[in-house]
Structures are given as structure tokens and as C-alpha cells.
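During the second half of the funding period, the structural biology subgroup turned its attention to how the target accommodates small molecules. The most pressing case was guanosine-5'-triphosphate, which had performed well in the primary screen but for which no bound structure existed. We therefore specified the complex as follows and requested a full 3D prediction, including the ligand pose.
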Amino acid sequence: MTNNQKLLAWVDEMTTLCQPDDVVWFDGSKEQQDQILEDLKKRDAIITLNQDKLPNCYLFRSHVSDVARVEERTFIASASEEDAGPTNNWYEPTALKEKMHALYSGSMKGRTLYVIPFCMGPIDSPSSRIGVQITDSPYVVLNMKIMARTGQPVLDRLGDDGFFVPCLHSVGYPLTDGKEDVAWPCAPMEEKYIAHFPETREIWSYGSGYGGNALLGKKCLALRIASVMARDEGWMAEHMLILKLTNPEGEVRHICAAFPSACGKTNLAMLVPSLSGWKVETIGDDIAWLHIGKDGRLYAINPENGFFGVAPGTSMRSNPNAIKTIGKNTIFTNVALTDDNEVWWEGLSPAPEHLIDWQGQDWTRESGTRAAHPNSRFTAPAAQCPTIAPDWQAPEGVPIDAILFGGRRPSTIPLVYESFNWQHGVFLGSIMGSEVTAAIISDQLGKVRRDPFAMLPFIGYHVADYIQHWLDMAKLTDESKLPKIYSVNWFRKDEDGQFIWPGYGENIRVLEWIFERTAGQAGAKKTAIGNVPNIKDLNTAGLNVSNEDVDTLLDIDKDAWLTEAQSIRAHFDSYGQKMPQVLYDELQGLEDRLNDMD
Ligand code: GTP
Ligand code: SPV
Ligand code: MN
């Protein structure tokens, strides 16, 4: 329990507001989890999977409207509109609180209010931060238990007057006037609010039970609010995986990679190298918190404790480590159910004859629909990953040698290239783009949008100030100690719309080149856009891709890049007056070098 008066007072106040039938402090115990499972079973809100094959695994089916993050209903309620910048939805904080107060009033009637103390980052890390989530969703409680460190150890660290981020969450479906509960309660789209108050470090989420809308430690705290803390305190909160790479000689490098949602972070973090002697170990698959260490290098911790991974496309061929991770103690959401009470999704294996699809309907191969939702997910403990690095919970983190930026770009962007220096690397992050994926509810699916640093939906303040913060990080240390920065693109397509690069385990060839560049070994040619490997600089032994295709993947198309530069200028302009001048200088430099090309 706790004597933290601020916490006790906040829980009292929220209880009075939301009027639940019960209040339960989640202590992380098996008894409490069993109780929650029992309640869910009674309500038919959970499907118990085959306990011989998938021990302690469960399936949830969400409401058809509540299947991914909702960027249109996500708000940065900073005191001034200017601080939210041009890429966020802004709402005046007092007005938003008033509006949401009305929604929360009595919103937990007929339900239990759970209090979940959680720690983002290892309990003993000075870089970790504490949050407390109030929620009326038992699904959220079970997921938070996997995704964060929860319960009494967190309250112990918090102490009597420690700081926490209050995170209020309600699914927005009060059981008033005899209203019956449903398997997945949520509110209609126009009543959903995913609200962030950056100055007071508060999170209020209403109306959705899914993923980043509802597991408030993840995108809301560890990225949007943490990005504001990081700006104020001189560190960085980024949408990045963290991996440890060991070469055949036993030398180690640590790599962070920022890719937008559903663009390959989990897969790269668990990569099984196709080249013998190389080893990849996993430290994190979605979020990195980066600090300058005592030695002046940049160190990363993974603030999370589990993986909330995309199911479709995950198989023993593409990502065997993920498959081995999710064999027990895992929650599946919106995947299909087999006749043996196991799980299935597109890309896992040849489709069985009969399934129950993610909406609970009979499905056969003739149905012509997807059996699993494209944004169906697994929630699994990170410690179960066979490649989890032994030091993944090191309180000081791991020193980072290289940062990768990448997205889904069917054309123009080569397989890999290296920035000239930190400032040019920041430019590479700022110009990122990617096709929009099913991780977001959007009518822009498949269209390329700019997504600077893969953080477009997660920067808790003005995008131009965020880019300036990246530039400023170099002033906190000797630039030569900072990681080298690379752009990668696994998603180039040919005229038939097929991926040219095989990806997955073959991405080790790109990591090998990057490893050797950090050691001053591999060659490269200096081009208008950056340092690009020559074909001979890449290890292509045994690679099932023609030299012609590798040429295409490494080629720089002057006209396509000049068009790209124009689009970058428009996108910089849309960020307004605050955009750092040096980024325009970098853009001008790129255009000048392109115009000098033959
Ligand atoms: P979030 O959890 O939404 O942040 O996604 P993520 O960035 O972790 O993406 P993830 O690794 O889950 O991959 C998303 C989809 O891209 C899956 O369907 C993968 O199978 C596919 N994918 C991942 N890596 C590659 C690759 O190297 N090549 C190709 N073609 N597809 C890939
Ligand atoms: C993402 O969309 O980047 C995710 C899934 O990692 S969610 O937790 O829903 O944000
Ligand atoms: Mn993500």
C-alpha cells in the first residue's frame, strides 16, 4: 500500500467523479489476476485458448470500431496552441477538462475502478518514470501487467512524496438504468478523447479500450508526455527499437531504429541473421529513452516490460523469436480462432479450412475476407523472448553506436545510406516518410505521409521545437561520441508491386555494413544524399537477389530526388516559422548536390 497523499487524494477525487461500484488497487498478484479472468469469463468477454498448447493465453475481440489508435481524437492540450504545433490536435486545457469531466461523471457506474501503479523502465533505473493508471477496463489491467512493471514495488519506489503521472482511463460505457454490459465496451468515435496535458503531466483517455489509446504507459506516457519531460530535462523519448549486434569476432554494437507503426521494429529487434556468426539480441521493440551517460555517449533504456506486437505477417519463417515468445502468458486481440482453440492470422501458415474470424463469425477460405484484423496484436512478456539480451534491464541502459530511420517507401529511398554528421542525420530523421498502415484508424491507408523520426503522432509539443531538441543534444556532449545516423528502406517495390528486398533475416546484411562503418572499415561512395554502399561493400554472398536489383536498391535517381526535395520543402514550410534554419540549409545543400549530379 501507499502513504503517498497526492496519490490517495487523486484516487479519491476520481472515484467521486467516476462513481464506480468498487475500487481495487492492483498489486500484480496472481489472485487478483485470476479474479479478473473469472469476472471476464462470467461476462463472456474473454476466450480461453487451448491451455495445453497455449498455457495462460487468452483471446479478446474488440468492438469493430475500436481496433487501433485514433489520431483524430488524440489531443495535446498545452496552455498555448502554439506549443502543440502544426502536427497535433490542440484543445484549450480548461475547456477540454470541462468537457471530459462531464463524460467521466458517473462513467464507471456498475463497474470496478482499478488503480494500477506502474513504472516505465526498470524499477531500479534512474531513467525510469512512474505513472498510475485508473481504469475501468479489466482488459487494460491484464495488458498493463505485461507491458509495464506494476504493483507494490512501484509504490515502494514512489514513496510518500514521489512524482507520478496521473493517467485516467474509462471505456465510456456506464452501466446505468439496467443497461447490459457488452464484451468490449467503448464509446462512439465522437466521444473518444485521448488527451494529454503536457504542463501538468496528466493523461486523460476516454472512450476506447484498444492499444495505445488505453494502455496509457505506452504512447501517451512513454512518448507524448515523456517527450516533453525529455525536452525540459535534456534527454530523448523516441519511437525506436533497441538491439544488440555481435559480429563473428565477438565485438558488440548497440543500434536503435525508428520506424513508424507497423513498419518493422519488432521484426528487426528479434532478427535471426541469415549470415552465420552474427547474433542479434533484443532490448526493446517499440520505445527507447536516451540519455547522455557519464562518458558522454548516448545510452538507451527500454521503458517497457512486454511487446504489443502486430500479429499478421508473424510466422516461424519471418520472426521465429516472436512465435516462441507468444507461446504462453500471452493476450491476443482480434486474431482468428481455430477449431482447436488456437490462434491464426494471415501470414502465420496456410489458412485452415475453418476459423472463427476476429468478429466472431464463421470463416472459410471462400469467405474472401481477412480472418484476423490487420492490426490484430499479441501482448507478451519481454522476458519470454529467446533473444532477450541478458542486460536488457540494465539500469544505466546500453551505449548506442548507430541510429536508423526507416519507413515504407515503394520508390526513391535506397536500401541504406549514411549521414555525413549529426546535423545531416537530424535532417534525415526530419524528412522521413512512410505509407500509412493499419495501426491507425485512417482513410489515408497506403498513402505516403511525412512522419519525422517516426514520431509524428507521438511528439507532445511543437514539431519544430522537437527537431531543435535533436540538434541541441549534440551540444550536451562531444559530437564524435554520438551515434552515427542511417536511413534504411526495406520496402522498395518493383513494377509489379512486389518487394525487391527480401527483408527480415536478410536485413543483417545492412546491419553488417553499418557495424563495419562504425568500426571505420566498410567502404561507401559519397553521393548527393549521403554515403551509400557500393555493391561490393555489401555482403551479398548467398543472397537471392540479382545484382541488377541490388543496383536498383542502391541507385540514386536524380529526378525523383529533386521531386522529393520539393515535397520536403513544402513539408518544412508547413511546420512554420519555428523550423530551424539549419534544416533549410541542409535541404539547400541536398538540392545543390543533386543539381551537380550528371
Ligand atoms: P508497431 O508495433 O505498430 O510499432 O509496429 P512495428 O514497427 O514493430 O512493426 P512490425 O515489426 O510488427 O512489422 C509490421 C509488419 O511489417 C508485419 O506484418 C511484418 O511482417 C512486416 N515486416 C517487418 N519487417 C519486414 C521486412 O523486413 N520486410 C517486409 N517486406 N516486411 C516486413
Ligand atoms: C503503434 O501504433 O506504434 C503501436 C501500437 O506500437 S499502439 O500501442 O496501439 O500504439
Ligand atoms: Mn509502435
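Two results from this model are relevant to the next phase. The mean pLDDT is 98. The pocket of manganese (II) ion (ligand 3) is lined by residues 239, 261, 286 (CB under 6 Å).
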